[in-house]
Here is the input.
Amino acid sequence: MEDIFKDIEVTDEQQAILDKAMELLKPYDKEETTNCMCYFTDKDGHEFSSEYDCCSDEKCIEKAKKEIRRNHGNRTIIEENITDTSSDHESFDRCCICYCYFNEYLTWIHQEFSHHEEYSVTADDLKSSNTAFELRGIYYSLYWSCDHQISQYSKHQYHLGNEKPLNDALDRQKDLINRVVKHASLVIGILSK
Here is the structure.
């Protein structure tokens, strides 16, 4: 594959900033994670809203089922579906009962990062356990994030002589990396005091 299609990687200096920010956030991260979750379907296999998704703890499952019955009728037949949570994620999802996280890392970081970039900017914000957990996950996930992979479309257009989609993709990659590293620098500046 041509070097032009190589995904942009963080520099050693940028990685050092991300590592330092993750280290400073670690003491504030008190969150629990689970490696599986339970979602619910009715007798016909139709899934209930993800607002009822919970961890695989029996107490959480029973409480979630009670909530479904309260909202959908006491005679509702509910099927439990346990699934592994190690697949792709573009958001941090939590158990509706105990609030433990289903995932520690993200495949796509842009959506979650945009929220933290705007709202996680003070010492109080950054010392919040869930904010520390999520920012650590975002910074760590930047390395493999699908947000900055070169699409087949961009490669195809480049081979046809249209360099604009590839250049736009490279610019978006660079912008996302710079924004994440800038935020990590903010974290270092605030938490190093």
In short: Strands lie at 36-41, 54-55, 79-84. Helices lie at 12-25, 58-72, 110-119, 123-126, 129-141, 152-159, 164-191. The CA atoms of residues 15 and 93 lie 26 Å apart. The longest helix spans residues 164-191.
